[in-house]
Amino acid sequence: MKALIKYYLMWGFALSFLALAARRFSEDQEIEAMIDPSGPAPQTPLPQGRAGAPGSAPAPLSGPAHFSRVSDPTVTLNGTLIRNGRHFALRETAGVLYPLDSTGLTWSYLGERVRVTGKIDLGTHMVHVDAIELAMV
């Protein structure tokens, strides 16, 4: 009798694992289709009032070019943090997806509603994260 119970438990766990893996794979494919870093950037305009203060001095150029572009505005975005393989993205409240470059700051907020502050690359819409915090609901 114990052997039969173990047999059914083993198959139950195995089938559950396969079902979850298939679901995860399909969600990853869906997210990957939405966030294609090599494809064109989303054609949605940035919301007004979220850019850095007008008249503020531009950041000095130093370090890697994608971290220090003068034209990259600082933005604050609200949304849900999602993951696709090793990539993270922010699904904004309006449904727009923004890929994030900082995996070190984002791990503990996966699946949570967050507020991300950082510089956005206008060409790729990638957000270079400066700070991340839980959003008040």
In short:
By secondary structure, the chain is α+β, with helices and mostly antiparallel strands. The protein is built from two helices and five strands.
Molecular structure report:
The protein has 2 helices and 5 strands; from the N terminus they run αβββαββ. The chain is about 25% helix and about 25% strand. It has a 5-stranded antiparallel sheet. The relative contact order is 0.15. The chain is α+β, with helices and mostly antiparallel strands. It has 2 domains: about 35 residues; about 70 residues, OB fold (Dihydrolipoamide Acetyltransferase, E2P). It is elongated and about 70 Å long.
Could you give the topology of this structure?
Layout (H helix, E strand, L loop, with lengths): L1 H33 L39 E11 L2 E6 L4 E4 L2 H4 L6 E8 L6 E8 L3
Antiparallel strand pairs: 1-2, 1-4, 2-3, 4-5
Lateral strand order in the biggest sheet: 3-2-1-4-5
State the end-to-end distance: 51 Å
CATH domain class of the largest domain: Mainly Beta
Mean pLDDT level: 74
Number of domains: 2
CATH topology of the largest domain: OB fold (Dihydrolipoamide Acetyltransferase, E2P)
- The H/E string reads HEEEHEE
Secondary structural class:
alpha+beta
Keyword list:
OB fold (Dihydrolipoamide Acetyltransferase, E2P); 27% helix; 2 helices
